[in-house]
Amino acid sequence: MKTYGFNLLPQKSRALVKKEDKRDNYSVAVALLPFLSVVIWLIVVLINSLVVESYKQSWQNAVNQKNERINVQLAPILIQHGELVSKTNSLAGVVVNDINPERLFLLLDQIYQQDPTFTINGYGRNPDGSFFVNVIAQDYLRLSEVTRRFTDYRFIEKVTLVNSAFDEKSNTVQGTIKFLFNYYEIEPQAQEQ
After folding, report:
1. Residue 2 belongs to some domain of the structure
2. CA torsion sign, 100 to 106 to 112 to 118?
3. Same domain, residue pair 78 and 19
4. Which residues lie closer than 8 Å to 185 by C-beta, 6 or more apart?
5. Of 32, 61, 96, which residue constitutes the final position of a domain?
6. How many C-beta atoms lie closer than 10 Å to residue 178's C-beta?
7. In terms of Cα–Cα distance, which of 154, 153, 146 is closest to 177?
8. How far apart are CA 24 and CA 11, in angstroms?
9. How many domains does the chain have?
10. Is the model's pLDDT at 96 over the cut of 70?
11. Could you tell me if residue 4 is inside a domain?
12. Where are the beta strands (DSSP E) in the chain?
């Protein structure tokens, strides 16, 4: 700005005038910076509310439709498979405690060597998981001794003489011995080997 008045101060140098102009421009820019940041923030909020929210809503609708399909149309399948999973999980303990069938044969070989006073004519497994052995002995005393040998074996528990009968034709006693393997005793021995 030019004034035609009388001035007692010396005139400023060109470099000082440029420096002051630059400082004034920076001051204006710094004063406008908060206003500019508020405008940018408002633009971001508008974009978020208009564009991003619509995308978010469309994705949420898609997820809700899938969940509705799962809960309505696939519910019987989910129930059936859930029952199968729960039944399988309930059998896990039985499967873990299962005994290999050859363990029965090894047991019979360990306990009973060749003995003419009795014979084993059958063996198997009951539906409850217990094993049975059909024995033919000379008399009831020998049948009870055979049963007692099962109870003396440390890997067997709950030995029961289920039935016994005298056969007049062969003059022998037939009986069925039922027992369970002690799974907890067998496991440490299997791990040591």
Report:
1. no
2. positive
3. yes
4. 154, 155
5. 96
6. 17
7. 146
8. 19
9. 2
10. no
11. no
12. 118-125, 131-137, 156-167, 172-181
